[in-house]
């Protein structure tokens, strides 16, 4: 699926010499991001997309029909047991219907259009095991907000997640809740979040097949479901996971995320006591604006309506001074809410209806947050500045919490949740969460366990005797296993043997793609096609002075999880436009790493370098993340932004390098990546310490893509047969 970026993808597709989409049935195009924009320029782009789709025989959904991810689910394109991708970071949502959804970027999309193929690096797999059942008043949104806050140290970063639980537990999670949870696994740092094909999903699919329109009968029909259910895809018995976490749903309460960070999650009751006033409330986005979400919000206002002695009902209205915006995930979802009367209740309460689309969630159109304002949203992302001003505060909560907050004029809930007797806190942690005395194991599982334990014992013995399996001292690069010590990497024609330059230090973790390339330029295609303009704004949301400090040939070095957030590939191309050939980080967000390879921006992970730079140039400030310990203390953004996904400035810098300081520091250090030897060499300034470290060998497919100038060049070669 591609959305408003379909035309930029089409221009890439045509620029690489392709003329016909490889398989039109493999592609869906939707218009959903900037649907409120009625300028001639935007309408022209929308017309171009529609005409291109028609000419290529591709399924197309116009502006106002719905958000692309919702369309993929409700129209049956995201099918259980299959894989579906979209050029948008919230493709993870498809996991809610047991479809492996993961994001790609525009260049990937053009490659798929042209060849039907692209590349992936298989990620580690994490299993998240749910126990218990959700209490009344607690929703799927509370589950994922709590997970993002409780496990906020990158436990699932760049992992693919499988959500599991016994039948009793999973029956307490309807499909709409699963979609919300899977959707926000993106914010949790995961590449996908997959729920099982179980009785809950089967019931939902049967309902969809029964109500299917003539347009969707080829996808939703009972014969196809019979085939699916006869052999549903399941995890292998005895499968091993890179990581296991568990959460007891029965111990959860309503949670709120923020301000301005998904890594700060606080029980609602702790925030209610602080009487935090709000200015705007949003029931929008692909996360939580389906018919069930609209019904839950409408129930808040129905319950608050008053009845006079003569039986006259006075509808409840939002608090004075509050603006409440609603937009359904799709037109069918809005029509369903209208048929139930829920849409009308929300309008009568004072809500302002917006067209079905992304809108305020991505900072486009009506109702954005102004400086100093506070907003509560049922959407998925509350990065600083995403929904408006960087001087505003954004919180995330369930539809019920959004509606109740709009009604009260301050952060609050409808009061439906009651804490269970004997409650002692949220129960969760590492492992599967099953007590040994409760564990039942089959003979097959027991044999699998014995085999695994035996294999591990053999491997440990080999390591002890001959060093087999040792990881070594090095760190991994953008992909591939480490070479044998002393060996040389074959360098393909066009790939540089060495890359070197002065280190430009940007001290922050979780520098997201909006910090690297601001969202306000992302959908301005003319701006984003001009390298000079892109170079002028790169890293602007991190440091407005970056462009004045950076020089051609610098090596940009930053902290951990660099390039997290949305899937915009301009984050990589803008760095290239600034003539910076290499980025070094403690670790990369997966989507940025992918974008970098696709656009021939080189990257390598060297955590030791980050530690050395911080020891030399940073002020030593530390940061903490608050989760469920608010009491009466105000909840604030993580100090220095080191543990959030936001984009405000990091902790203050020390000025130890020739008197230079600031957010972007010219260090005087040099960095050399010897690709042939798979080693990096760092010189810590004139006359300073020199050290080197082994890094991962680049695999041939990555070299081939970069050597051809990026994935577009690779596709040209495939088309030409060279």
Automatic annotation (TrEMBL):
GO terms for cellular component: mitochondrion. CDD domains: Homoaconitase_Swivel (cd01674). Residues 617-633 have a biased composition (Low complexity). Residues 2-409 form the Aconitase/3-isopropylmalate dehydratase large subunit alpha/beta/alpha domain. It is an enzyme of class 4 (lyase). InterPro entries: Acnase/IPM_dHydase_lsu_aba_1/3, Acoase/IPM_deHydtase_lsu_aba, Aconitase/3IPM_dehydase_swvl, Aconitase_4Fe-4S_BS, Aconitase_4Fe-4S_dom, AconitaseA/IPMdHydase_ssu_swvl, Homoaconitase_mito, Homoaconitase_swivel. One of its GO terms (biological process) is lysine biosynthetic process via aminoadipic acid. It is found in: Mitochondrion. It comes from the Eukaryota. Coiled coil: none annotated. Residues 487-608 form the Aconitase A/isopropylmalate dehydratase small subunit swivel domain. Signal peptide: none annotated. Residues 617-663 are annotated as: Disordered. Belongs to the aconitase/IPM isomerase family. Catalyzes the reversible hydration of cis-homoaconitate to (2R,3S)-homoisocitrate, a step in the alpha-aminoadipate pathway for lysine biosynthesis. This is Homoaconitase, mitochondrial. The gene is LYS4.
């Amino acid at each position: 699926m591609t959305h408003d970026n379909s035309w930029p993808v089409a221009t890439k597709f045509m620029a690489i010499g392709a003329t016909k989409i490889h398989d039109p049935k493999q592609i869906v195009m939707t218009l959903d991001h900037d649907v409120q924009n009625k300028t001639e320029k935007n309408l022209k782009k929308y017309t171009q997309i529609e005409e291109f789709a028609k000419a290529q025989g591709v399924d197309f959904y116009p502006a106002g029909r719905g958000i692309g991810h919702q369309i993929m689910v409700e129209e049956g394109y995201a099918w259980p047991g299959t894989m579906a991708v979209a050029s948008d970071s919230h493709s993870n949502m498809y996991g809610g219907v047991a479809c492996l959804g993961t994001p790609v970027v525009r260049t990937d999309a053009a490659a798929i259009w042209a060849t039907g193929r692209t590349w992936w690096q298989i990620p580690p797999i994490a299993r998240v095991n749910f126990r218990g059942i959700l209490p009344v008043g607690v929703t799927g949104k509370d589950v994922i907000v709590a997970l993002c806050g409780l496990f906020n140290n990158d436990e699932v970063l760049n992992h693919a997640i499988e959500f599991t639980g016994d039948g009793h537990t999973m029956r307490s999670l309807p499909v709409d809740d699963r979609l919300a949870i899977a959707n926000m696994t993106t914010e949790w740092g995961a590449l996908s979040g997959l729920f099982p094909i179980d009785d809950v999903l089967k019931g939902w699919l049967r309902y969809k097949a029964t109500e299917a329109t003539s347009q969707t009968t080829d996808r939703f029909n009972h014969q196809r479901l019979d085939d699916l259910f006869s052999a549903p895809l399941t995890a292998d018995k005895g499968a091993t996971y890179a990581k296991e976490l568990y959460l007891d749903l029965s111990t959860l309460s309503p949670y709120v995320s923020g301000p301005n960070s998904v890594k700060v999650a606080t029980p609602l009751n702790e925030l209610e006591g602080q009487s935090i006033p709000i200015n705007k409330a949003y029931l929008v986005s692909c996360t939580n604006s389906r018919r069930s979400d609209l019904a839950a919000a409408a129930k808040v206002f129905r319950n608050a309506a008053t009845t006079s002695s003569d039986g006259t009902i006075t509808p409840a209205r939002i608090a004075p001074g509050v603006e409440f915006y609603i937009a359904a995930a799709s037109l069918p979802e809005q029509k369903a809410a209208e048929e139930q009367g829920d849409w009308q209740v929300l309008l009568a309460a004072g809500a302002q209806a917006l067209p079905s689309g992304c809108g305020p969630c991505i900072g486009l159109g009506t109702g954005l947050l102004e400086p100093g304002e506070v907003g509560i949203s049922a959407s998925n992302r509350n990065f600083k500045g995403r929904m408006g001003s960087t001087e505003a505060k954004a919180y995330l909560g369930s539809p019920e919490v959004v509606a109740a907050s709009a009604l009260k004029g301050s952060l609050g809930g409808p009061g439906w949740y009651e804490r269970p007797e004997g409650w002692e806190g949220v129960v969760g942690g590492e492992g599967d969460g099953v007590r040994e005395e409760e564990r039942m194991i089959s003979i097959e599982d027991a044999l699998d366990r014995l085999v695994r334990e035996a294999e591990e014992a053999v491997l440990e013995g080999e390591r002890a005797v001959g060093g087999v399996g040792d990881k070594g001292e090095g760190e991994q690069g953008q992909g591939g296993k480490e070479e044998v010590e002393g060996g040389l990497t074959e360098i393909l024609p066009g790939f540089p043997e060495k890359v070197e330059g002065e280190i430009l230090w940007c001290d922050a973790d979780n520098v997201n793609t909006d910090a690297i390339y601001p969202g306000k330029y992302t959908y301005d295609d003319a701006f984003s096609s001009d390298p000079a303009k892109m170079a002028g704004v790169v890293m602007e949301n991190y440091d407005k002075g970056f462009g004045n400090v950076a020089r051609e040939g610098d090596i940009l070095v930053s902290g951990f999880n660099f390039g997290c957030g949305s899937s915009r590939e301009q984050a990589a191309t803008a760095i290239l436009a600034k003539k910076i050939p290499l980025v070094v980080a403690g670790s990369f967000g997966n989507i940025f790493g992918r974008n970098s390879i696709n656009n021939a921006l080189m990257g390598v992970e060297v955590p030791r370098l980050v530690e050395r730079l911080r020891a030399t140039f940073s002020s030593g400030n530390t940061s903490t993340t608050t989760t469920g310990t608010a009491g009466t203390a105000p909840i604030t953004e993580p100090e220095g932004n080191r543990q959030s996904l936001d984009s405000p400035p990091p902790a203050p810098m020390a000025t130890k390098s020739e008197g230079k300081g600031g957010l972007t520091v010219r260090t005087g250090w040099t960095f050399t990546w010897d690709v042939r030897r798979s080693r990096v060499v760092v010189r810590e300034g004139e006359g300073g310490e020199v050290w080197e470290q082994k890094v991962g060998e680049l695999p041939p497919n990555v070299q081939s893509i970069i050597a051809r100038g990026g994935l577009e060049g690779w596709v040209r070669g495939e088309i030409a047969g060279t």
